[in-house]
Amino acid sequence: MQPDTITPIAQRVTMRVLLVEDHQDIAASIYDFLEEQGYEMDAASDGITGLHLAVSNSYDVIILDLGLPGIDGVDLCRRLRDDARNPTPVLMLTARDSLHNKLEGFAAGADDYLVKPFALQELAARVKVLSERATRLFTKQLKVSDLTLDLDAHEVTRDGHHIDLNPMAFKLLTYFMQHPHRLIKREELEHAVWQDDPPDSDALRTHLSNLRNAVDKPFSQSLIHTVRGFGYRFTDQHADS
Ligand code: CA
Fold first, then answer.
1. Residues lining ligand 1 (ion), CB within 5 A?
2. Which domains, ranges and CATH numbers included, belong to the chain?
3. CA 114 to ligand 1 centroid distance, Å
4. Mean pLDDT taken over the chain
């Protein structure tokens, strides 16, 4: 076996996608569509095979059906995050548009959600956003909408205007911009800033309010969105979920 068979994500040209879906026709159409778009595809039709593939290979995105034989999508996602400590972005698919399913999926660690039936073009667009996230973690120049952040120069600008941030606000904004468009749990944000030693519960609120005043308030479009009871989403796209 070659010692360099696993290429780091940042150097890889082709994005790898794992599809876990037990419905044969749906699986085949997703597989073919994404393969045509240039993705390297792997597929599993049950939860146990899916989990095995997910932990033994390195993927840029996992597309995960909610209802699966073996273990279901929520359980698979939870095991991936909690047991395997695997951060690969997960796009969850479900047949029902119920808030309960959605919240359950997010609580298990899914990054995005799509309700069947969906247009393959929309699926591809979401896979693209998620796959770019991994690449983003190696980038020093972050950009979301008209906001840019330069990690080396420690500089933030929006719509051409320079924005002054204190170190804590800069740290929060960096994390948001490295993880755009997805739901970020409050605890995840606290961990990103203070690791395992967060101060009192109002500290995050205070720092976020400072950040919002600097980054959102002077501009017509807000980027930091509160998802009630859950956390936050940093995006210039729809932020209803
Ligand atoms: Ca299914």
1. 22, 65, 67
2. 15-137 (3.40.50.2300), 141-234 (1.10.10.10)
3. 13
4. 86
